[in-house]
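*** Protein under study ***
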Amino acid sequence: MSRSPASLAISAASDERFRRALSVIVPAWFVTVSVIRLSVLLPTTPGYDGMLYRDATLRWLSGGDPWAPIPGQAVFGAPPPTLLAMLPFAILPETIARIALVGLGIVASLWMIRKLRLPLWWIAFPPLVDGLYIANPHVFVVPLLIAGAAPLAVFVKAYAGVVPLILGQWRALLVTAALVVVTIPILPWGLFLQRWPEVSAALQAQSGGGGLSVLATPILVPVALLAAVFIGRRRLAWWAVPVFWPFTQWYYASMALPVVTPLAAIALASPVQGATTVAIVLAVVESRWLVRERGLLRPAADLGTEAASV
């Protein structure tokens, strides 16, 4: 039965109020959570995670062990290709390298937001703010992926390979594999494999078990798997790391930015266990009902289809 013009007008007005409410609630939530997080981080020097990666690279260059535990520091747990990605910052003086990592991360993130046609206030997305302040190389992963530089993104962070793998981008994967093979002779893979049991244990301890992925809340695994089926392959490519990757850190949530929807983003902005599962469930609801049926919300994937399908 068709709806009357009056009921359609009422529905449209209601939908418009919903959109306007979200345009206030979402950025307000982002800013609130980011301010709280920054208040915790401000006593520390910006870029300290980037310096952890730089120090590991310097140890490798001097013939030392990049994965050796350093008292009072977090463990370096990235595989050997990340050492090559960090070389440009290792050759710079520490202060300049710190400024470069933080500054380039901000520039890359602003470019990513523009490429995805998101409002500028998405720079306040709390997991992104977290990664930018500590200058973790993760902040370069999504910009590199949407720029079509998947092999370089994988060298920055190995889990970047999940995106082209799920999307079936075999050329990018073949190029990545070729680069890994070519660089094997110069990278300390043997030492990494030898160190991996203790590195893995340290990562597990640092992440509080399974981090913020669904692995930290096994009871939610069936829910997350069901949501992964319904969300579709293209969106799952970007959701897989925040939801399923072991030892997930909060800043990993920015992987979902190319396809995230507003309500899901609110959940991702909460650094609590189970939030990533709640977020992907919300994304399913938003993408299948609010977007397709009512046209209320438009995820970044629909705003920047070409970029998000990289």
Summary: Confidence is low (pLDDT under 50) at residues 5-12, 292-310. The radius of gyration is 20 Å. The chain has one domain: 5-308. Residues 5-41 form the longest helix (37 residues).
